[in-house]
Write a structure and sequence with these properties.
The protein has a single domain, classed as 3-Layer(aba) Sandwich (Aminopeptidase), CATH 3.40.630. It has six helices and seven strands. The protein has a seven-stranded mixed beta sheet, with helices on both faces. The mean pLDDT is 92.
């Protein structure tokens, strides 16, 4: 029987594995858009370490290996901003991306500040990402032209109201 994937908060010790996974995971995006200078491929370890202290960063572990990651924070406007969802290529298409997204939404909702909605974006050619986000309840709110080769599709999902305690 195989090991289970466990989702938990990232630690400072995870930074190098997260950066390597991010680099591996964004290769297909770079190919898709013909741009190997995208920020996920050029981010420094120091910058990632800073994000670990400033944002909620979750990792999915298979044993000691980080096989997925996602990060996000709540803006001053009460919007949960989600980014950098990455799943190791060999672990894709098994529901891990959806599990990471659900876990981060729960983590942001438990942050102690009200969250009215969750927002994220992806490239217009990233059809797998768009399908995942649609399955998770995200709806397109706009398209932003970045360059002649790239447009960002912005998506949003309303936050669910907290369940009332029953007596």
């Amino acid at each position: 029987m195989g090991m289970s994937v466990i989702i938990s908060a990232a630690t400072a010790e995870d930074a190098e594995q997260i950066l390597k996974l991010q680099y591996l995971g964004y290769q297909t995006e770079a190919e898709l858009y013909g741009d190997w200078a995208i920020e996920p491929l050029t981010q420094s370890l120091e910058s990632l370490r800073a994000e670990l202290t400033e944002q909620h960063v979750l990792v999915a572990r298979l044993g000691d290996e980080v096989v997925g990651t996602i990060r996000g924070h709540i803006g001053d406007d009460g919007i949960g901003r989600i980014g950098r969802l990455v799943v190791h290529p060999r672990m894709q298409r098994h529901g891990l991306g959806g599990r990471l997204l659900d876990a981060l939404e729960r983590r942001l909702a438990e942050d102690g500040r009200p969250v009215s909605a969750y927002r994220l974006f992806t490239g217009h050619r990233s059809l797998g990402n768009l399908r995942l986000y649609a399955r998770q309840g995200y709806r397109q709110t706009g398209v932003e032209q970045i360059s002649s080769r790239l447009s960002f599709v912005h998506l949003e999902k309303p936050a669910e109201a907290p369940l009332a305690a029953t007596a």
